[in-house]
From TrEMBL:
Belongs to the universal ribosomal protein uL13 family. SUPFAM superfamilies: Ribosomal protein L13 (SSF52161). The gene is rplM. It comes from the Bacteria. This is Large ribosomal subunit protein uL13. GO terms for cellular component: ribosome. This protein is one of the early assembly proteins of the 50S ribosomal subunit, although it is not seen to bind rRNA by itself. It is important during the early stages of 50S assembly.
Length: 138
């Protein structure tokens, strides 16, 4: 008989990933697996059984592609006519690397209430310091 994990039975850990020297996409797929809980034997698709993930040194990750900083655009739209706003990848990386990571992670998680719960356990910091030292057991 298969055991179904209940939300109150999930044991969450705090996992710190260092982005320095890592490829952006590969790092985020690792983080998405940890957030969903697919690395655990008790994985259940309809229960949020993932861990809390912290990414430090977000601004020091490496990116593939020659002209990605100039060519790739991120769009947002308020719903009103003519209100499409665009930001270049390079500007987003220089000014708000946390937002860049959150946007990419949001695309890798389910587009449901469960995905919204999962993204709340994802923390990104541009530098090497983070305020979650009490949770990591250090």
């Amino acid at each position: 008989m298969t055991n179904i994990t209940k939300p109150n039975e999930v044991k969450r850990e705090w996992i710190v990933l260092d982005a320095e020297g890592e490829i952006f996409g590969r790092l985020l797929t690792k983080a998405a697996t940890l957030l969903r809980g697919k690395h655990k034997p008790c994985y259940t698709p309809n229960v949020d059984c993932g861990d809390n993930v912290i990414i430090v040194n977000a601004s020091k990750a490496t990116f593939t592609g020659n002209n990605k900083a100039e060519d790739k655009l991120y769009h947002r739209h308020s719903g009103y006519f003519g209100s499409v706003k665009s930001e270049k990848f390079g500007e987003l990386l220089a000014n708000k690397p946390e937002k860049l990571y959150k946007l990419a992670m949001r695309g890798m998680l389910p587009k449901t209430k469960l995905g919204k719960q999962m993204i709340k356990k994802f923390y990104v910091y541009a530098g090497s310091e983070h305020p979650h030292t009490a949770q990591t057991g250090k």
